[in-house]
TrEMBL record:
Protein source organism: Lacicoccus qingdaonensis
Residues the record lists as N6-(pyridoxal phosphate)lysine modifications: 292
Cofactors demanded by this protein: pyridoxal 5'-phosphate
Any one GO biological process: carboxylic acid metabolic process
UniProt family annotation: Belongs to the group II decarboxylase family.
Database matches in InterPro entries: Aromatic_deC, PyrdxlP-dep_de-COase, PyrdxlP-dep_Trfase, PyrdxlP-dep_Trfase_major, PyrdxlP-dep_Trfase_small, Pyridoxal-P_BS
GO molecular function: aromatic-L-amino-acid decarboxylase activity; pyridoxal phosphate binding
Domain of life of the native organism: Bacteria
Lineage of the organism: Bacteria, Bacillati, Bacillota, Bacilli, Bacillales
Protein name stated in the entry: Glutamate or tyrosine decarboxylase
Keywords, alphabetical: Decarboxylase, Lyase, Pyridoxal phosphate
PANTHER family for this protein: GROUP II PYRIDOXAL-5-PHOSPHATE DECARBOXYLASE, MIP05841P
Gene3D superfamilies: 3.90.1150.170, Aspartate Aminotransferase, domain 1, Type I PLP-dependent aspartate aminotransferase-like (Major domain)
Pfam families xref list: Pyridoxal_deC (PF00282)
């Protein structure tokens, strides 16, 4: 006899409907872009015990609405310009609701036939954008760029070096590469001292001549070069490495070429498309985040390889309890080409968004982000004592304040304090980063709901905060 649990007695239908309506009606632009929780609330939730008898659900919802979800960094805010914003579409959110409500276990075709058919379809779609052949190309949806990079690193390791020689394995990255690669190398067993950081040129691109020289030196020292990781859209500057130049080096020494395109590769859907990434078709693997510039909610990303057999070589395992549901022939279950067995149907929400909006709308949105970055550059160039440090590239630019009468340390402190005051104000998020030892404001303008007024309002406030800091010296 089934037990009657308390959940059935709750007015969940109305509560869910109310929360959905509340979300749809909110105006993010009037909310704080970021808000820090006071210590008393941190203490409250870190020390809160689990009750023996359940509490009133409306009391819980009040805590969620007014406390827990109030003090967060809103990546989808129109004036959230730091990191890589996550301007998730409401269509993606709808997909999240539906796939979560159905509790889909998207590991194999027999569990989730059509959701996985959609995943295969989208992997093929994006593989074609890269210039890969549908067969033998392949890939799998993963949680994010970190997991995509790890999957690619493990695949490259298994293809290019014997386990017994792993202690000699060397890998090559630029000093602008995403930090997730360091984690991936560590997990994959590449010794930390074997990770070669190649300097970048004046455009923040990996120095290909230096790369070639370091690889040759390693070979002479009886090391075993494994792979090179280039970047298609660095986090700091939106720079695209010289993929064709790196390809030539990899081909000369039989190395795996992985391109971390977690952020940048979505620009393949822009007007300029593949012209932004010459040589991308030569990469053995790429990482590509949909929860950035494909406007998906967290988390939704892909790793795509030129030959899916390499993924099978690394991740295909036999489990007796799965015998009845494993597929055969040309139908490869996602759990056979990636780390996860338990996995949500991440591709469905992206499919919904692409089907409803279409390529044209995506192209317009991505182009708009670059236009906003160029507009920001124009505004900064008209501001007194402000300098553009890295020009707009893939919707990212950086700039700094330079008071001629102050030294670099003093100017850096003023800029950092101004960025902190901006975040504390809640109006916008414009944190600093470092380029060639310089402290700079970095802005990423990819939210399609951001207006030019958001840009000018943010820059005006930054200028005001800087001037306030000057007066306090």
């Amino acid at each position: 006899m089934a037990m009657e649990f308390r959940e059935k007695d709750l007015d969940l239908q109305n509560i869910i409907a109310d929360e959905v309506n509340k979300y749809l009606k909110r105006d993010l632009g009037t909310m704080s872009a970021t808000k820090r929780a006071p210590q008393e609330l941190i203490d409250k939730y870190e020390k809160m015990s689990v009750p023996q008898k359940g509490r009133d659900i409306y009391e819980i919802m009040n805590e969620l609405d007014n406390e827990i979800l109030e003090y967060i960094h809103r990546n989808n805010h129109p004036r959230s310009f730091s990191f890589i914003p996550g301007p998730g579409s409401r269509l993606s959110w709808l997909g999240d609701i539906l796939t979560t409500a159905n509790n889909i276990h998207a590991s194999n075709f027999k569990n989730a036939t059509l959701p996985i058919s959609i995943e295969r379809n989208l992997i093929n779609y994006f593989a074609e954008k890269l210039g890969y052949k549908i067969k033998p190309a392949g890939g799998v949806f993963v949680s994010g760029g970190s997991m995509a990079n790890l999957t690619a690193v493990v695949t490259a390791r298994d293809e290019k070096i014997a386990t017994k020689e792993l202690y000699k394995g060397t890998v090559y990255i630029s000093d602008q590469v995403h930090h997730s690669l360091s984690k991936a190398f560590h997990i994959a067993g590449i010794p930390k001292e074997n990770v070669r950081r190649i300097p970048v040129d004046r455009e923040f691109k990996m120095n290909v001549d230096e790369l070639s020289a370091v690889i040759k030196k390693d070979i002479e020292a009886d090391m075993k070069p494994v792979m090179v990781v280039g970047t298609a859209g660095t986090t700091n500057t939106g720079t695209v490495d010289d993929i064709e130049g790196i390809t030539a080096v990899c081909e000369a020494h039989d190395l795996w070429l992985h391109i971390d395109g977690a952020y940048g590769l979505s620009h393949l859907l822009s007007t300029k498309g593949r012209d932004l990434f010459p040589g991308i078709e030569h990469a053995d693997s790429v990482s590509w985040d949909a929860h950035k510039l494909l406007f998906q909610t967290y988390s939704c990303a892909m790793v795509i390889v030129k030959d899916k057999q390499h993924l099978l070589n690394s991740f295909s395992e036999q489990a007796e309890y799965l015998d009845d549901i494993q597929s055969d022939d040309d139908v490869i279950d996602p759990e056979m080409i990636g780390m996860e067995l338990t996995r949500p149907a991440r591709a469905v929400k992206l499919w919904i968004t692409l089907q409803v909006l279409g390529e044209e709308q995506f192209r317009e949105r991505i182009d708009y982000g670059q236009h906003l970055a160029e507009y920001t550059e124009e505004c900064v160039e008209e501001m007194e004592n402000w300098q553009v440090i890295s020009r707009p590239s893939l919707s990212i630019l950086s700039f700094k304040y330079v008071q001629p009468n102050l030294n670099e340390t003093e100017n850096n402190k003023i800029l950092s304090n101004a960025a902190g005051r901006m975040a504390s104000s809640g109006y916008a998020v414009t944190y600093t980063t470092e380029l060639n030892g310089q402290k700079v404001i970095r802005m990423c303008t990819i939210n399609p709901e951001t207006t030019k007024e958001d840009i000018t309002g943010t820059l005006a406030r930054l200028d005001e905060f800087v001037k306030d800091e000057l007066e306090s010296l």
